User: Fold Recombination protein RecR from Alteromonas sediminis.
Amino acid sequence: MQFSPLLSRLIETLTYLPGIGKKGATRIAFQMLERNREGAMALSHALHDAMEHIKHCRMCRTFTEDEICAICANTRRVDSGVLCIVESPQDVVAIEQTASFEGTYFVLMGHLSPIDGIGPEDLGLDELEARLANGKLQEVILATNPTVEGEATAHYISQLCQKHNVAASRIAHGVPVGGELEYIDGNTLMHAFSGRKTL
Amino acid sequence: MQFSPLLSRLIETLTYLPGIGKKGATRIAFQMLERNREGAMALSHALHDAMEHIKHCRMCRTFTEDEICAICANTRRVDSGVLCIVESPQDVVAIEQTASFEGTYFVLMGHLSPIDGIGPEDLGLDELEARLANGKLQEVILATNPTVEGEATAHYISQLCQKHNVAASRIAHGVPVGGELEYIDGNTLMHAFSGRKTL
Ligand SMILES: [Zn+2]
Ligand SMILES: [Zn+2]
Assistant:
């Protein structure tokens, strides 16, 4: 089926959205044209403005259109001296939803991956080291993912912390709360055993 | 979690897309910012241009930015004198994919629905009647959906056809080819029985 050029282009570009295939894009295009042109126009403007203006926070590297994000601009949180290192802005969202962490973050925007040519500078570890050196941090919590790359990245950063005499800790890995042992993968179970605590 | 204003607006407007919830929108926003700003910008422009310029074909009412869509501009198809009535542009796509219909379409962009205040004029049935009256149509194929509203709409149009002496037919409803009887709903089975053909 030959769509008109503008409709073809709309369907094609909708497939750029992760998780949207050709069929879904066609359905979305028709539905927006039929029922929500205003909404589609609002989305068009929001996409444009976001891509044009959202950069990285100068302190923690998360996404924001401001120089400094809201968390880094919160002096109470900065003064805590606790810095949590995560791989992505989504990780910040997940941790913030627990409402239990009161420090600030440092978002790597990835992890060390020599095969992909991603080294320490790509993760902003030079900036991180400058902060470790300035003496204002009491503790660094390493919350990278429990993957090979995440562990290697955590290990690398823990050595930077050691070098600058800043306490470093790794978040605990084990059986999820409410999880049933029977359904947990072996690797997680091994972590749960080796990380056991004396009662 | 408090996102920056532009990021909040992006996530909010992404939920205007049918089938995308808050969580999916957040994931999409981050992924586009991280990995495909160019694609997001292209989508922004495509959305803008589509919503601004895509209107309805003057002949068949389907979506197009041209006065007349590609199918209606095809004289071979127009000269066939066969017009297929469907409820939506997606139906045109489905029929075109079979590559077996060589006439043109008339897209109602809905169906008669007195409760929702949708009457004949809203479906362009005045325009359709003008075409039935001008003597160039040999046959009208009613391909509205096999729902209460679709049937009522087909019935209404068949009466217009009768009034203007244009042959009208309704597409067959029954067990889908390859479908297993066991899994077909009762209504479809009833249609299949009442629509049986002598061998
Ligand atoms: Zn920040
Ligand atoms: Zn047309």
Summary: DSSP finds eight helices and six strands in chain A. Chain A has a mean pLDDT of 92. The longest strand of chain A covers residues 82-86. The beta strands of chain A are 55-56, 63-64, 82-86, 104-107, 139-142, 167-170.
